[in-house]
Every structure is written in C-alpha cells, then in structure tokens.
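Design request, tokens follow.
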C-alpha cells in the first residue's frame, strides 16, 4: 500500500473541517451520537450490497475515506484498485494502519475532495458516507463528475436536514459536529438531479430512530425488522420523507 500526501489549496471552511476531523480522530472515545446509528443499520446493509455489485474489477475512489473501515470491506469485493482521499492527516494515518495488509490494491492520499489531483475520467465508482454535507456540495458534484468515467457511478449515504426534532438536537449539541456541516434539503437533491442521470434516492431512519431504545442488536431484532419495513412503506408518501434521518444516493455520469 502506498500513502501519499499532496499539497492542497484550502478555503477557510476546508481548514475548519480539517481541524475538526483531526481533533475528532485524536480523541480516545468516539462521539456520544454514535449510539443512535444502529437506527440506520438497513441503510448500511443496502449501501454495502450496492458496493458489492459495483466494485468488482473496478477502479474506485473512497471519497472522504476517514480511517478506512469501508476500504477494508470493499477490498473483499474484488476491485481492481481502491484509492482513498481525506483532508485529515490523522485519519489517513489511521487508515494506513487499518489497511496495511491490503498491499498495492489500496492507495491513500491526503487531499481536498472539492478539488482533487485526479485526472479526468479516472474512476468507475466514487463512493462515501457522511462526507458531502461537510463540503461545498456543488463543487463536489462537479469534481466527481469530472473524475468519473462516462457511465460511472456515485454512491453516497448522507444525512437529511428536514426533520425538526433532529434539527433541534443538532442546535442543542453544536460541539458534536463541525459548524459548517449542511445536512441535505430539497434544493440539494434538485441540484444533484440537474447534474447527473439515473438518480435514485432512498430514505431511512424514521421509526427505527424514534423507537431505538426498544431494540439492542438490529440484526437480531424482530422489532427493528418491523420498524424498517414500516418506514419504507411510509417513505413512499412524500410527506414522511421529511422525517427521515438519512438517504442513500445513487446516480450515474
């Protein structure tokens, strides 16, 4: 595995994100909010299933790779090459340790996702989770469009900013997140649809979040299975989508 650090031109927002995530990855313990993520178990199941289908023999980019947990999983799906990029040097250092046994299949870079050093039409797939809402979304969409091959795909899991209760919690706990993050709203999804084709958006995390104290292990819980199925029925109605916590986005160049 080769790790490379590149020079970056960073905006003030980029620098704030860099400092926030360097500090976050320097903590001995994770964020308290991590306890809620079991409510999104089904979005991760769907995310990794789509990755499995799209990565075989493909050159893929983990966009905002963090400490590299997704890279480890994707390496089992027989990709041709996995490149990971992240603005945080500490995250890349940890990702190097986590992926050290994967050899030349993996290449890691410290870099600015809004303006990468990759050549045009490089990747079959660009994927990530919880990254786009930290950045200038329009810049990211244009950059991903540039580096994707014709017909290439993007796949992202991102939070929504439409649930008033979740938004209240965000306001009450400002130190738990960077000040510049921007969970998606309707105009962001319309911007995505204006730039890409075959856009599919799937919604997650309404009743599974409301009733998360009532189950422990989602993979073994009948309650979770029932709640996630009800959620998917409710999300067929546009009104209930405003109460979702997260979305899975797939699209093509």
């Amino acid at each position: 595995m080769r790790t490379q650090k590149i020079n970056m031109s960073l905006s003030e927002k980029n620098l704030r994100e860099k400092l926030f995530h360097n500090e976050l990855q320097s903590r001995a313990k994770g964020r308290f909010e991590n306890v809620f993520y079991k409510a999104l178990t089904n979005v991760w199941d769907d995310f990794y299933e789509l990755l499995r289908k799209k990565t075989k023999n493909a050159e893929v980019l983990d966009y905002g790779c963090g400490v590299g947990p997704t890279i480890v999983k994707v390496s089992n799906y027989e990709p041709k090459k996995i490149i990971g990029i992240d603005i945080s040097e500490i995250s890349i250092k940890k990702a190097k340790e986590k992926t050290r046994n994967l050899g030349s299949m993996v290449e890691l870079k410290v870099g600015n996702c809004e303006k990468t050093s990759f050549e045009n039409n490089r990747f079959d797939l660009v994927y990530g989770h919880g990254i786009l809402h930290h950045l200038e979304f329009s810049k990211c969409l244009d950059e991903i469009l540039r580096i994707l091959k014709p017909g290439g795909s993007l796949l992202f899991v991102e939070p929504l900013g439409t649930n008033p209760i979740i938004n209240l919690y965000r306001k009450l706990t400002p130190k738990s997140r960077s000040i510049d993050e921007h969970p998606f709203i309707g105009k962001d999804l319309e911007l995505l649809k204006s730039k890409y084709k075959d856009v599919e958006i799937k919604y997650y995390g309404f009743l599974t979040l409301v009733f998360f104290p009532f189950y422990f292990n989602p993979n073994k819980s009948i309650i979770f299975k029932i709640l996630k199925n009800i959620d998917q029925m409710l999300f067929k109605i546009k009104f209930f989508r405003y109460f979702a916590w997260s979305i899975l986005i797939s699209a093509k160049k």
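Comment from the thread starter after seeing the answer: thanks! The longest helix spans residues 12-26.
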